[in-house]
Amino acid sequence: MLCLGIESSCDETGLALVLDGKLIAEKLASQVDVHAVFGGVVPEIASREHLRVLPVLFRELLKEQNLTVDDIDVVSVARGPGLQGCLLMGISFAKGLVLSSRAKLIGVNHLWAHLTAAGLEQELQFPSLGLLVSGGHTHIYLIESPTKFNLLGRTLDDAAGEAFDKTAKSLNLPYPGGKLVDDLGRQGVVDKKLFPVPYVNNDNLDFSFSGLKTAVATYVNNHSGLRLEAMGVPEDGEEDSGLAAERKNMLASFNYTVGRTLEVKVKRALERNRGVKSLIVAGGVAANSVVRSVMSDVAAGFSIPLVLPSMHLCTDNGAMIAYAGYLMAEAGCRHDLDLEAIARGRVVPSDWICEG
Ligand code: KG4
Ligand code: ZN
């Protein structure tokens, strides 16, 4: 079964081909540079970029593989949650392809696709506990099968990735700053008491990162030398080394605090779901070195494997959408041409048609 995946939910245009569950080719066009000057994604510009880039990548992908549209069995597209206009670009492109070929249409949940992406590299086991940490979401799921995800906990306000990006912004580091916060923090010394670990003194599996965001902003306001005068990446030796060290220490403490929050809630979820066979951690923030090391200790503590997609599969890409579509097609699922885009904040319905 040849499955084409289309990702256009935010600022990456991704296309990929998965043949019988194995990735054979992929294309990714990042718009990061286009949006960096605005300090965040501008939805209107993002949609236009997807519209411009999708047909180009599609043509290149097929040409390089010596394939035609008639070789495609399944067109799998991210149908949400995401930026409505961006999703519509991918979905319209997918519907056009389905109308002009024999392929089936499958709309996949972008969040589920992040969590099953590691299946391209290793066999997934069910049930598993899934932690999704991305720019827009922080969710804990009990994953019973590729088509059955039970949401156990979620952020009540900001996502973990947003806390990373806002922390970077407060220091005048370029968007998206998560990776820089990780890299600089790795060179600093952790002060475990610098920031309060947010929203852990309760009995639930939800998250809240807005208090941490405010704590960071207040700290930077009170230590204004930490904020770079011009937006950019500080070079070693370029500025007062005391200030550079203080900034790295602050970021090390911030990384620690986020890691600790995630650790408390994931441990709690595992205690309440003893039968799970693995811990899957995915999404852009799963690329964070502290998150990876904390989750590896948590999984070891419960004697289950930690499943982490490799770095290039953590951030948005077409391969994870193609693979999620493959899993759904294997389960006998498909959508009709009335497939809708689901904007951020709305729950993605399980409205597929099952033929299995
Ligand atoms: O999953 P993703 O690519 O896009 C969404 O669906 O949101 O996640 C993007 C998020 C951004 O907030 C980015 O700053 C963050 O992932 N990120 C990181 C790292 N790499 C990417 N955050 C912390 N540490 C990293 N190494
Ligand atoms: Zn994503």
List the uncertain runs: none
Which quaternary structure do these chains form?
Answer: single chain
* End-to-end CA span: 16 Å
What amount of the residues lies in strands?
15-25%
General form: globular
What's the overall average pLDDT, rounded?
95
Counted up, domains total 2
CATH superfamily of the largest domain: ATPase, nucleotide binding domain
**CATH fold label of the largest domain:** Nucleotidyltransferase, domain 5
Q: Please trace the helix and strand order, writing H or E for each element.
A: EEEHHEHEHEEEHHHHEHEHHEE
Q: What are the salient characteristics of this protein?
A:
Nucleotidyltransferase, domain 5, binds 5'-O-[(R)-(carboxyoxy)(hydroxy)phosphoryl]adenosine, 356 residues, 41% helix, single chain, alpha/beta
Protein described:
This protein has 356 residues and is an alpha/beta fold. It has 2 domains: 2-121 and 313-354, Nucleotidyltransferase, domain 5 (2-Layer Sandwich), CATH 3.30.420.40; 128-308, ATPase, nucleotide binding domain (Nucleotidyltransferase, domain 5). It is 41% helix and 19% strand. It has 11 helices and 12 strands. The protein has helices at residues 32-36, 43-65, 84-99, 110-116, 160-170, 178-185, 210-222, 241-272, 289-301, 311-314, 318-330, and strands spanning 2-7, 12-19, 22-30, 74-80, 104-109, 128-133, 138-145, 148-154, 279-282, 306-307, 333-334, 353-354. Strands 3-2-1-4-5 form a 5-stranded mixed β-sheet, with helices on both faces. It has a 5-stranded mixed β-sheet with strand order 8-7-6-9-10, with helices on both faces. A two-stranded antiparallel sheet has the order 11-12. Strand 9, helix 9 (289-301) and strand 10 form a beta-alpha-beta unit. It is globular and about 65 Å long. The two termini are 16 Å apart. The structure holds 5'-O-[(R)-(carboxyoxy)(hydroxy)phosphoryl]adenosine and zinc ion.
